[in-house]
Amino acid sequence: MDSLTQITLGAAVGEAVLGKKVGNKAILWGAVAGTVPDLDVLFNPLFDQIDQLSVHRGFSHSILFSLIFPPLLAYLIKRIHKNSEAKFRDWVKLIFWGIITHIALDCFTTYGTQVFYPFSNYQVSFSTIFVIDPLYTLPLLAGIIIVLFYNRSSKRRRIINYVGIGLSSTYLIFTFVNKMYVNSVFVDSINKEGINYTKFITAPAPFTNILWRGLFVTDEGYAEGYYSLLDDGKKINFRLIEKKSNLIDEIEDSRAIKKLNWFSNGYYAITEKENVKYYNDLRFGNLNGWSNSNDDYVFSFKLIENGKDITFQREFPEFEISGEIWESFTNRILGKQ
């Protein structure tokens, strides 16, 4: 999830765990704990382009890290707040819950989280919520802001914080239930189209849990479609995407391609522009995909071939958020296809 959400969640968890004892200090250190896992990006310069792909949401997002790191940070906090009512084990508890809830929330997004690292590089991804979803963040944020105006001994302070956590958690459960329903709609629709597939994924569109995207692996490549809970019917229009994996046959055993295949979980397509090949992770779709079928994919990697040495470079498509884009996005959410 985005940094604001993780900071806010960490602050709310900190308040719930230790707010009664240390007041706003619990909010502060909870926010720090909620930020710590994402500091893994600071280590990117130590790795090449290929390995950088697995650094984020790697060790710092693992269960092992959530067990090892809390005592270290708790020791530092205890040194800073020597006269605090909280004991060392209290700070360990706060940091642990701040980190583990960060990890758990990331698992609900599409990106993939290596929870079992270093024993396994399997990426946990429930893909029920977009990385930025105001309906999840706002209850937490509102609760924390209001809590700051109450004394730490106030019962209202704790109740308000729990209400914020409860509303956000309920919404997260809703996204999971919603995904199961959306999956059934996608499967029914593609079966009626007579399209054979081997596996599929679904993911919510940006900032919402109403509009969803489905991607099915077919014999020819992929079938992609969008469905809004506000659509008049359940018929989904699918467009076919060619995989074109033959374009990388000669380099498919390279370290770069193997890493990209792992990262994309096999959901990829190759495009070629001006004799340059691009590896596109299809899990995240293309920009404005609900209204057009361009090849400006959100996660696209330019393949760089230098003899037998193969590497890649992340390409960021040009995308300007205009009034027209917002209008088409809003209309699609409202079921206007």
Explain this structure:
The protein has helices at residues 3-22, 24-35, 49-55, 63-80, 88-106, 134-147, 155-193, 255-264, 323-333; strands at residues 199-204, 211-217, 221-228, 239-242, 268-273, 276-286, 297-306, 309-315. By secondary structure, the chain is α+β, with helices and mostly antiparallel strands. Among the domains are: 3-126, no CATH class; 243-315, no CATH class. The radius of gyration is 22 Å and the shape is globular.
Indicate the overall shape: globular
Question: What's the main sheet like?
Answer: 4 strands, antiparallel
Lateral arrangement of strands in the main beta sheet: 1-2-3-4
Q: What ranges have pLDDT less than 50 throughout 5 or more consecutive residues? A: none
Q: Rg to the nearest angstrom?
A: 22 Å
The H/E string reads HHHHHHHEEEEHEEEEH
The portion of residues assigned to helices is 40-55%
Mean pLDDT: 94
**Amino-to-carboxy terminus distance:** 29 Å
Q: Tally the helices: what do you get?
A: 9
